Amino acid sequence: MQHGLKRQKVCAAVFSLLLSSVTQAAWEEKYYNPKPLQDDVLLPMPCGGQMAFRKVSIPLAKPLDDYPLTLGQDGDSWGYLEQARAEHIAGSFTTDKPKPSRYYLLAKYELTELQYQSLISSECPKPANKLRLPQTGLSWFEAMAFSDRYNLWLRKNAKNKLPVEDGALGFVRLPTEAEWEFAARGGLAVSEAEFRDLLFPMPEGLNAYAWFAGAQSANGKLQLSGLLKANPLGLHDMLGNVDEMLFEPFRLIKPGRQHGQAGGYILRGGNYLTPQSGLRSALRQEQPYYMDDAEQRIKTSGVRLALVSPVLTSRERIKQVEQDWQALGTDKVAAYDPLKDISRIADKVEDKALKLQLETLRRDLRASAQARDEQRDQAIRSQLQLGAFLCTKLKDDGLFLDTLQSNYQRSCEGQGADETRCAARKKQLDGHAEVLEFVLNYYADSLVGSALNYPKEQMAAQLSVTEQQMQGRSKNNLQKYLQVHWKNLKSYLENGRVARSGWLNSCKSI
Fold it and tell me: Is 26 left (phi over 0), alpha (psi -120 to 50) or beta?
């Protein structure tokens, strides 16, 4: 009897706890998204909470497409930790707007104490400003356990809020190094030069964007999440405040690639004790998973979650990947494909060692061809962007020359004109005409060079990617110039005529 009463009390207590979690009043926005943006993506949390995410776009749509980028920084200082190296990144979720592309999501802020307690504690925490501090002191395993617990809660309580890719639900985890650094540097929202800089663009100075050591900044204290300005992707505290744990293990860097040994876990971004001179997008360090007889826990490290999807989501997706993989490294416009010859020879060879050598050669050739194709695509995109920019110059310089010409005719081609003043105006007019001629020749050389170096089909395939890059970098004003440049380029490909005056007028008419 007593045992039954005890069980009823326990059940009543559990039910009361669950009911309080469900009926908990929703948090005020300042506790989970103090700097809201219209395109934020929000996921619910227990106890009436939420977590804000930002989309990080990749301008490629097919499952096997990935985007080349350079991580790290050039120079010998800390080269074994941060040396520049080529990597690739791809998005998890497909979208058709504004162009077919993919994206992943990254938490807008570092995980706060309030968010952590809402999922881990037995009772719902009362929202308070002090709980907006980043959750620190977790081991890497506790961070993984938190993401696992959050995933299970979402699937049970808010499955319809998770993004879906090809029928598969998304899930949260720690970000990979490429995901973190691509977003930290500003992704597609910055130019290539800004992406390769030590810090993402900070028009109002470092103090407005990052907490670091010193009385002029954090002053040795952990700061509330989201107080400072965001990076170009709308992400807060990517640099400073707390170091952020990553998903994969740490590796040293050799020139051009990572070293073969995998070690502890990676921390990125610096923290509130990092000197101002030490903050940089390439900053990375290793921490061991264990310290003495316990899991490693650090008071200056925290967590920022990524929201991604599985890769092989359905049979149809697997078929598409297989088809795309077969096409890798095979240039359809090439008249001769040595890979096919090697395959035919290998099929006829009976010697196992020689067969293995031929297959290795074939694989290396495919990898080389794939790298060549990626470099070619990047060069095409650069040429298209250059053509659009030069078209803007042609418009500005051309219209300014028209104005000078009109003023000169009105003031200096009639009787009684001031000869001295008109001579100065004629000199200015001739000088600007030379500038315009130089820009026009540069534009023509660039356009003809693109037509000679790349087939129309290859350039057309990169046009959409270039448009998405411009959109991501807030350069929509260049889109119409890109379209005019593409029209001029297609015209030249069709008739082979260098129509300088026509190209100039097409840009001036925008």
Answer: beta
